[in-house]
Amino acid sequence: MEPVIQCRNLRHSYNGKKQVLNNLNFTVEAGKIFGLLGKNGAGKSTTINILMGFLEPTSGDCRIFGEPSYNISPQTRTRIGLLHEGHLQYEFMSIAQIDRFYSGFYAKWNRDVYYELMEKLGLPHNHKIFRMSCGQRSQVALGLIMAQDPDLMILDDYSMGLDAGYRRLFLDYLAKFVRERKKTALVTSHIVQDMEQLVDDIIILNKGKVIVQSSLKEFQQGLRHYRFTSPDKGKGLHADEVIANFDAVEDQVNVFSFHDKEAVEARLKELQITNSALSERNMTLEEAFIGLTGKY
Amino acid sequence: MIKSLFYKEWIKLRWVLLGAAIVTAGLLVYILLSVREVMEFKSAMDAWYNYIHIQKNFYTVIKYNALAWGAIFAFTQFVFETRQHRLRLLFHLPLAHNRSLYWMMAAGLASLAAVCLLTMGGLAWITLALYPAEVFTSVLWTIAPWLAAGFAAYFCMALFLLEPSWQRKVAFLFLGCLVGMLFFQGGGYDAYKHSLGAYLAFAFVLGFAPLLPAFRFKRGSY
Questions:
Q1: CA distance B137 to B118
Q2: Which domains, and CATH codes, for chain A?
Q3: Contact flag A104-B86 (C-beta cutoff 8 Å)
Q4: Taking CA atoms, what residue in B is nearest to A75?
Q5: Per residue in A228-283, pLDDT tens?
Q6: Is the complex ipTM higher than 0.90?
């Protein structure tokens, strides 16, 4: 089966200057929720802009349902639901007006799904969107995408500006909708711990490249966190094929690796690093993400 | 889909359109009262002398009306579409991008056309009631470039708002002012009688200009 999203050898630079994406490759299969993770400046926004069709890559190929992402046909656009950063919508419209507007474009428009979410807000249907809080606007944006009934949903930083309650509400509805209707979703968020309960697969970007693409489970089982004490703060330690990343706080050194304890110990010995015994520690997704990509 | 696009534009434009109708009607009433004042308190000859010999148009007060409403209609429509990159919403609709923009502009231009028709209709009523029919023909020739300026102003304002780069925005603003001035160079009646076609063609060609920054936005090259 053809992947829903396929990006090959994607490169992009703004005005021919710094290369933001550097040979980016990934695929998104149908029926799963993908989390696109990356620190600020990793190339996440550029990738999302290319996927949403608002940026033509300098070179390479990014296809959605087999069509170039920057030139998707109107028919295929009906199969793609976009949630833009900041939950952008036509704020001059009311709850009822925006439903009436969008329903004219989509044959499968499901008004009930939209109004089910709107009822949660407890607002009259003539309430204007610009008078809503950020959390309420996020519900409108999500309700509209769900009513569109797309096959692929791309949600850019859905958590932006949301408090814990609205974030949870958003995630609960999104997860239920995607799982029950077997949709594909690609989400980004600055709140990595949310992804732990939401996504099936993750793609981690760092410096314009994909450094991890795997299922969430495989990633969490594969990446390990070791800690040891070293009076010289692990001087001489560097990332290589065994040590994925490391950091030191005072004399406590954290090493992140996809290898087992014996392999890491052997590598530390080779590097002649004085250390106490290695202890293995459990990690949340957020800790694993920061461990792999670094704090800065 | 087109109906939905018009519905969105109607929500944005309806109160502005009402405002335009009230202001235009108010100006027409003012013109009527002014001409009647001259005719009743002075004489019909004074009115005729002012118009034909001094070339003092009795409808000058409406000169910049279409220009102002052209700019206001475009502003009302496009300021909501361009704030925080909202053009993305328009360009994700399942319609060809140029079609969605053209239908949007069609709604604004239809509103402006309504103002122009009200202006022409009102002036026709006033003129035919008070002057010989030939004067009405002259009024039409005289106001045509003023009304065309409204369309040029609409396109220039759309171009200004759709342009994502501030440097180009400033250049387009300057260009828009120059374009606007072109339509108001002639002083007396019938001033543009022999060149009107060229001015109308120019206003029509300007209609393609807003597509350029919009498509640059779509490609992300700004």
A1: 16
A2: 5-218 (3.40.50.300), 223-293 (3.30.70)
A3: no
A4: B94
A5: 888 777 777 888 888 888 888 878 888 889 888 888 888 888 887 767 778 888 88
A6: no
